[in-house]
Amino acid sequence: MSAPKIPSDxxxxxxxxxxxxxxxxxxxxxxxxxxEVLINVKYSGVCxxxxxxxxxxxxxxxxxxxxxxxEGAGIVVAKGQLVGNDIQIGDxxxxxxxxxxxxxxxxCRQGEEPLCAKGLLSGYTVDGTFQQYAIAKAAHIARIPKHxxxxxxxxxLCAGLTAYKGLKESEARPGQTVAIVGAGxxxxxxxxxxxxxxxxxxxxxxGGKEKGEACKALGAETFVDFQTSKDLVKDxxxxxxxxxxxxxxxxxxxxxxxxxxxASYVRPHGTIVCIGMPxxxxxxxxxxxxxxxxxxxxxxxxxxxxxxxxxIDFFARGLxxxxxxxxxxxxxxxxxxxxxxxxxxxxxVVDVSR
Length: 354
Fold this sequence. Notes:
The protein has 354 residues and is of the alpha/beta class. Helix content is 25%, strand content 25%. The protein has helices at 48-55, 106-109, 150-153, 159-170, 186-197, 209-217, 232-238, 257-261, 287-292, 305-316, 332-341; strands at residues 9-15, 22-28, 36-46, 66-67, 72-79, 92-95, 98-100, 120-121, 133-137, 142-143, 177-181, 201-206, 222-225, 248-251, 271-274, 296-299, 324-328, 347-351. Strands 3, 5, 6, 9, 10, 17 and 18 form a seven-stranded mixed sheet that branches. Helix 4 crosses helix 5 (186-197) and helix 4 packs across helix 10 (305-316).
């Protein structure tokens, strides 16, 4: 396929200063380096991490000015001279949180490239996908089959991948029970579907009737509402079908409390997987019960390249139907406001063309 004409400038949402707001304006289109591709972004999911990037409240330095976003799905329109023939102009591809890594350190060689000390992070340390044309390292783009909708697959590139990786890290087996805390949010919605597809029984934990109905529609057998529960630990244990507690707890919460509480209701020899990253939060658990109950507490970051292919395959087989709402790129600040107010339900996808 012949290379399409690439404009010299483009529309983007740009963070000019820590704390925001984002500014909708024109910026130059960058040319890809030798090992990079340029992707014409059609759609980009919006993640809570994007809010952290704007607020600068993680202990990780961001670039400024910054184009946020890391769930971009689009079409390859240019590539560097070192990019192999396995990537062609016109291919459909995704840009993920991990934009690139060194590929040569011990972590990269063992398939743990998210731990690479030289990792590049889309929408945080390098410009991301809230722009019409974005750059990514060719080795790390997600390969998207052309028959799949770019609009509907965008949330899979972070929310889906992160949720799937967390469930893998939990080592929960088909038939076992997993509690998904923060199940009503974008990541939680994905985790519900992946957990169901993986044969797990699901307890969804979140607040509000609307979220409860949405969680049950996506596969949760039980919904525990922290807003109305008088004893959350007791209610989650009771919902675990044998009363011993869930085999695994997947934490997508955006506040510290749920991370402190999980050790009180996970079953003996269970696993607590921390994925949400509330600013300045800590994990605490009683040493005695953690030891005698052989409880595992671990973190789960983003998936590697193999995890990406697997997460997309679940979607391609129709097992994951990412619930989302579409807005124009010019309206992005509205989603940031909802995230700040903690009123967001599900996932939003930005149509970068408007």
